[in-house]
Amino acid sequence: MTDLELPESSAWWKAAVTIGGFTLFWTWETFWPFIAPAEHRLRHAGRNVAIAIANRLMLAILFGSAIVGVVQISAQREWGLLRQSGMSQGFQFLMALLLLDGWMYVWHRANHRIPFLWRFHRMHHSDRSMDVTTATRFHIGEHLISSLLKLGLIPLFGLSLGHLLLYETLVVGITMFHHANISLGRCDAWLRWILVTPFMHKVHHSREHVETDSNFSTVFSVWDHLARSYRMRTDCATIAFGLQDLADADWQTIKGMLITPLVSISSRGSEPEDQ
Ligand SMILES: [Zn+2]
Ligand SMILES: [Zn+2]
Prior knowledge:
By secondary structure, the chain is mostly helical.
């Protein structure tokens, strides 16, 4: 398989994980919610999903061809750490997942550290109730900046379309899982040695700044363990989600979400680094 060829089943796998994961976790939350669901659950879900669909369309139009083009040029010129490493295809896939997930840790942490990036990322954190649809609630500005940076990672790491699609599929499945309003009970503690779990990510969505600034990992939890940003609490059922200064109903509407980055940082003072 070359860098531009994908097994025919790849796109289907991503679609199956997206639809299957959403159906599974939505059903799980409906019948066995960990915390009482949002008062207007369908309205809350509808807004988050609408934002996600608009984001996907815009990213496909703006970056679809650019990603294929950059992968093509990188492959032709043999650019990238993985291509130069001489590792087997299987090992390259494993390393690509780790490199991309390590990058996501750095990127997520930068979103909390750098005030300009936090303006966009705080839209993800302003959700007052957390469920599977929170996984898709990101400002298009954050997506645009991260997609631009990812274009640079392709030649740097030597990524193929297969690497990118496999990691994206993993991200879709795991982010729906760890945002879902579900509990794995005691299994959560075992699983979070390897993966980001629902309890682990709930701590990241807490209104307590010290908790918001922890648990930055996306798929594998190893990055938080290594960088000492891992944090847990005994009772995840009592976490208050959202951001103090963006808690009003106005910030939960589609318009409110879209204008979130424009709010003056100093006047609302919700920066986690300001604690
Ligand atoms: Zn965050
Ligand atoms: Zn989240």
